[in-house]
Amino acid sequence: MSVKWTSVLLLVLLNSFHSVSCGKVLVWPTEYSHWINMKTILDELAQRDHEVTVLVSSSSVFINAKKSPVIKFEVYLTSLTKDDVDDLLMDIIKKWIYESPKDSFWAYFSHMQENFRRYYDYIEKLCRDVVLNKELIKKLQASRFDVLLADGVSPCGELVAELLKIPFVYSLHLTPGHTVEKYSGGLPSPPSYVPVGFSELTDQMTFMERVKNMIYTLYFDFWFQACDLKKWDLFYSQVLGKPTTLLDTMKKAEIWLIQNYWDFKFPRPLLPNFHFVGGLHCKPAKPLPKEIEDFVQSSGKHGVVVFSLGSTVSNMPEDRANVIASALAQIPQKVIWRFDGKKPDSLGPNTQLYKWIPQNDLLGHPKTKAFITHGGANGVYEAIYHGIPMVGIPLFADQHENIALMKAKGAAVRLDFRTMSSTDLLNALKTVTDNPLYKENAMRLSRIQHDQPVKPLDRAVFWIEFVMRHKGAKHLRVAAHDLTWFQYHSLDVIGFLLACAATVIFIISKCCLFCWQKFAKRGKKKKQE
Amino acid sequence: MSVKWTSVLLLVLLNSFHSVSCGKVLVWPTEYSHWINMKTILDELAQRDHEVTVLVSSSSVFINAKKSPVIKFEVYLTSLTKDDVDDLLMDIIKKWIYESPKDSFWAYFSHMQENFRRYYDYIEKLCRDVVLNKELIKKLQASRFDVLLADGVSPCGELVAELLKIPFVYSLHLTPGHTVEKYSGGLPSPPSYVPVGFSELTDQMTFMERVKNMIYTLYFDFWFQACDLKKWDLFYSQVLGKPTTLLDTMKKAEIWLIQNYWDFKFPRPLLPNFHFVGGLHCKPAKPLPKEIEDFVQSSGKHGVVVFSLGSTVSNMPEDRANVIASALAQIPQKVIWRFDGKKPDSLGPNTQLYKWIPQNDLLGHPKTKAFITHGGANGVYEAIYHGIPMVGIPLFADQHENIALMKAKGAAVRLDFRTMSSTDLLNALKTVTDNPLYKENAMRLSRIQHDQPVKPLDRAVFWIEFVMRHKGAKHLRVAAHDLTWFQYHSLDVIGFLLACAATVIFIISKCCLFCWQKFAKRGKKKKQE
């Protein structure tokens, strides 16, 4: 009888743990590829009977266009128009691709900094339109959400969560210098073996590379502190009605879902509330549309090359398109190119242009031999998942870093978009298709990606549900968050111990001096006597 | 057709990932509770059709007595007898319990150090008997094992793995000052918020506690370096026929299975190849033997208290037994006491003595109200699993630390075995049974333990199988292992940058001085003119 009771109790307990019937999730998203990635999590949450509501501005360019039928959208009004946002984001991206200085890292970083500043100004506008909209906040409060899922690259999610008094979870791929992960998440990043984000270094650094990594670390730390943090701190303090800072608010995140894993990144220290769920959007290939399938099959034993520059860049200047097209015309493979510009004159008969391609299904096709990619994290992960070697032509944001990583892992050849010639591209394609090492390395990464105790998507959803079930995950939060920077580095303790040691040495030497003087005096007296 | 092919390929790929048919596992175990814990993993591996072989000495006290029918045992001869080992281990334990100094931490640690020294001398003897036994090593080599699972607390497993040229995995709970985890595993342990192992501190430290933690860190670091490491280094170099060290050999571990989790420990930085699988031996309660069940049921609404001092200590001096028995006689609960000594005179009618008890089944019984425990990690985890508050009477090894942690988490009251009175024990029992906070906290820890994406045992087995499938897990290994201590802390880089800065300042000031002198000279000349 008693044993039955235990079993019943245990079952009830376990059931109550492993389901949150109809949890309510509020979402603070980011445009473009970030949205594609996050939507995978949201669709899965909706599949599991949670009510998912996405806060989206009336000016959203991409999210509105790629809505999901199972997700609710709370559209808030903003003074910006769609054209404003499209112009701004496209201008930032174009400047990054075509105008960022190439000759010096510092000039490049400084240009990148300006891009970020413009982006954050835009996010701040959106944020004001949400948190100062009393009616909207009241409506959201009345909805009694269980958790907020925020894209960590765009501030404001944590502020909305604070206003609604609900726990929040971040989804994040990478920030320059790992500054957000470090200063908001408490993630340790020793510069001796953790190459900082955007440094394009590997974990096997020479002495001079470690010097470089240290300088980058200091640079990004300084940049981050010099960012308009004070403006955000003031804004957050005003909205919350108490003195606070952006970082202190971000530090309250229960869980960080980091969109990479050890097939993509180099292994590094992590924290119990950091879960590396990279590639969660990857899935087995579905059948291709008939037209594409026929084209693919027509490639024979040579197979196909898939080419896409991502969801934001579907066009390019004519000269670049011709350089690329003429290289593609010379390879034995058939090419499927996602391109929405004027058909290049040098386009070969082996190359087909498409405005949109089923990228994941193509990468999972057995005839696919290589992937020419801009190096967006989503695309790179699809290539890893299906074990396809890459030719990387990074354009902006973290793409240079992603391709540098794939190159270091022996699964990609890297080219420069602005300067590469047809021969460069041709050679790169020949290398990744003819040298079996690239395929082997891509397959090794694929095995790592597939062979995890729990699928990344299930892990991401598990931790969001965990936060809903337990109203947080405080047991995973390190105490580092409660320390100042000098306490964190034990500088006060080291100072105290050094002061103690100095005092002891001082007292001992004074005593010795005193004794010696007494002894010397006595000796003198004795001599005089 | 092609899509079918993809699916077939993917299935084959996935199947090949997720099963290692008949992998061969060699085991380097440790006696007593360590063996109980490891046996759970080995039984599970055997259940999954792996061939498990345990290297056990002819003098083993506990492992031989607690063999498993599904595991093979490779018994090697040693010059020690069972009595030698039993006497040695019991003498170490008794000295730790009854003779370790109480008045000063330093005297206690120094006493503990002597206990460890004696233990490691014994392990070294066993190790020599294995690795210098050429016939045994030849036999093991011929068996072509896929992986070696070693208890990290007793060196030698890594040496055997090196001789057999197979990857190895550690199972480990905790070492003093986290020294092994730090120096062999590369685990970062910032002293500002990670209380070092055996310090009995929490992660919420005052300034003086942080000073204490820093001093402990330095002390244990010094202790570890001052241990007879050189002796081991020489031994390992001789056996492997190349200059090497114990630490360098240990650093090659593919995976560290750490026997705790964030319900037991405070959150801290970890590494991708450290998997926290505490409580993997816990399981739902089975029905009790009829006699015990009848006794438990006779307790009525008051319920029962379970009392055990673990697998190594089943007896105690008469005066201590009487102090305990008279306290137990005064509580309204019935008491089940695992005790193998002379029946205490003060034993109450509510207390039943047993030479052995089904501890996990009792802790999972709905009538169990509290657990009096010595604080062994296995027992504490069973209490956590079933949500039972504890009265901790730590005796030796990590037990003081374990009980300090449970006390800090509000799930235990701590007593001192050598000095506690009947009233102390009575009050402690009243506190944990009458104050609902203790039960609530124990249940909170239980919820954390139950609510994980994968059960700890499955996670442990997954990573051992992973190492077998992929012949290692190099992608999880941080590059910190390839750095010297000053490189790890970037001291060479900092030194270089400071030297550069000093040179620049020197040159600038020299230039300024030169210009100033020139300017001054000219001025003087002009004046003279």
Give structural attributes:
529 residues; Rossmann fold; alpha/beta; 20 helices; seven-stranded parallel beta sheet; 3 domains; homodimer; six-stranded parallel beta sheet; disordered N terminus; globular
Mean pLDDT of chain A: 93
Tell me about the biggest sheet of chain A? 7 strands, parallel
Please report the two chains with the greatest interface, counting residues with C-beta closer than 8 angstroms to the partner's C-beta. Answer: A-B, 77 and 77 residues
Tell me the CATH topology of the largest domain in chain A: Rossmann fold
CATH class of the largest domain in chain A: Alpha Beta
Gyration radius of chain A, in Å = 28 Å
Helix content of chain A: 40-55%
Number of H- or I-type helical stretches of chain A: 20
Tell me what portion of residues of chain A adopts beta-strand conformation: 5-15%
The rounded distance between the terminal residues' Cα atoms of chain A is 103 Å
